[in-house]
Specification:
This protein is mostly helical. 72% of the residues lie in helices and 0% in strands. The protein contains 13 helices and no strands. The model has no long low-confidence stretch (mean pLDDT 87).
């Protein structure tokens, strides 16, 4: 619904040039971009990107805001190398060092996600990349506030790294931390995609990483995190939940075969 409202607003403004302010057009385009990603309409999202490029100059703070949505688009459409190039463009920008601390921190985490997605396709990486992943595993969540989902995004990335390494003990500890996070921050949000995804990871630990059994026991939650269109995509779903789940399943099953 938001997508169609924004499209109609942009069409209205285009018919009245004297009302056509790039700032307003940009805000509608950004909402159209985030809505299109939410419903997985990548073609419409790319059109919104073109409008955002025209409306938000690189000298503006909004440029960093909408570029985050573009990165989500590239990662959700599995354009891994393009996402990596975009991240480099952002962190190398002259104005990036003067952005607020939370913006820099968010882009740092997005960079780790991007690097991990690239690595997941070709699991061979230079030592510097592996050191970065080790750094992510050492990072501790800040519980004073959820920081707009930062902790959930951090826990999910840490879980991905541990699963890819077949670190069973690490996964057990991370599952326990996820349970505490859910109790603290997801009360009253049991119908969200994030809750469905994290609950599935918790059940994976509960049933000793028996994927076949978990698919049955967590069927409701798996369907829940695969549901698109109701929620805005943010850093808690930097990568699609269904994509991450399939990676985790593959790594877990491979670890059990090796054992």
């Amino acid at each position: 619904e938001t997508f169609h409202v924004c499209s109609e607003a942009e069409e209205f403004l285009s018919r009245f040039p004297h009302l056509n302010n790039p700032r307003y057009m940009g805000q509608f385009a950004l909402k159209r971009l985030t809505s299109a990603i939410a419903i997985q309409d990548f073609r419409s999202a790319r059109k919104a990107v073109q409008t955002c490029e025209q409306c938000f100059p690189q000298s503006s703070n909004n440029w960093f805001v909408w570029k985050e949505s573009e990165l989500h688009l590239l990662l959700h459409s599995q354009e891994w190398l393009a996402a990596s190039a975009l991240h480099k463009q952002i962190v190398d920008h002259d104005r990036f060092p003067v952005q607020p601390e939370q913006v820099q921190q968010k882009w740092s985490l997005l960079g780790y996600y991007t690097a991990f997605a690239v690595w997941a396709q070709e699991p061979s990486a230079p030592g510097t990349v592996m050191k970065d992943f080790n750094k992510v595993l050492r990072e501790v969540a800040i519980y004073k506030r959820d920081k707009a989902g930062y902790n959930a995004a951090l826990y999910t990335l840490q879980y991905l790294i541990l699963a890819s390494r077949g670190d069973h003990d690490g996964l057990i500890k991370k599952s326990e931390a996820i349970v505490k996070y859910m109790d603290r921050y997801l009360r009253g949000r049991h119908e969200t995609q994030l809750y469905g995804f994290l609950k599935t990871l918790v059940l994976l630990n509960k049933y000793d990483y028996d994927v076949s059994r978990v698919r049955k026991k967590a069927h409701r939650y798996i369907e829940q995190f695969r549901r698109f269109g109701r929620e805005t995509v943010d850093e808690t779903q930097t990568l699609r939940f269904d994509t991450m789940w399939e990676w985790i399943v593959g790594w877990v099953e491979n670890t059990h075969r090796v054992k």
